[in-house]
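pipeline: protein-struct stage 2 | run 1193 | Fungal lipase-type domain-containing protein
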Amino acid sequence: MASEREVFGLSGPLHLTNIDWNNAHHRRSVAASLVEGVYILERDRQEKREGSQALAPPWWEFFHFKLVRKLIDDVDFCIFGAIYEYKPPSSHCNDSIVSIDGNPRYVIAFRGTITKPDSFTRDFELDIHIMRNGLHQTSRFEIGMQAVRNMVATVGASNVWLAGHSLGAAMAMLAGKTMAKMGNFLEAFLFNPPYLSAPIERIKDKKVKHGIRIAGSVITAGLALAARGKNPRSRSEDPFSALSAWTPSLCVNPADHLCSEYIGYFEHRKKMEEIGAGAIERLATQHSLGGLFMSVVGKGVEAAEPLHLLPSANLTVNLSPSNDFKQAHGIHQWWRPDLSLKCSLYKFK
């Protein structure tokens, strides 16, 4: 039996009857709904809901999108992503290929982990790859990445949005970073992406929290210098600066321990600049302690760039109370009309 959360007429953003593509809340809400559409596509497949019984179509049709293609995992054949095309009524726009008034032409969306037997094993395997900084080596990511490459090559980067939630946000983030390194800066909406680190953000005492972060930055910067000594080529390479022009929309909830560290990650960078320690933080923010430690004490092999590290972002923090972790981590929160949000722009310089 379908849950209420799967039914658009019960849980979707029905208040968005007219979309203003220059309105940040509208853009975020539509992107989140398209991600939810991928979740329901897979649930429809698992529950064998077809035709008029399928629950997924309203999640994109309400906003005048058409499902162009499902992205299928080659291991368990689950649906992990979808490509949507914006097809508004003829009265709303002309047939121009160029996106006008801020609307996308295509959206590529990726879902997160589904805790159901038909997909959980493969999803959990991908979650482990994220923790090991190995998502880029998986066949699911390559399928999604190829879809992004093909779409950008066909219609141009300005006509493509990326969107994802949780595991799917990690997919979208890695795809966006990969494209940005080639000079293609895609609009992206990353909902509750995982940030793997000690839960410093949960410490209530601000002085203690700030002290721990400063100590971490000093140690990380020191290890980064040591790693550079073992790998001279890395001195001239600065992928962070190359990515700094890409500014995805990053949506996190402080009650979600899987993504809340992004709040401290960006706030700490700003504070380090204010106290005159910007050079230390500029070096530290590009690395993770775990990866650097393995580089320095290991076999001299440079660690893979941690997925969660972002140079720049439009950070949106949901300050609305959450009843539990499930609500704080869920995708549904991002289209509620009564959200209490704190929005900040962070640019890596």
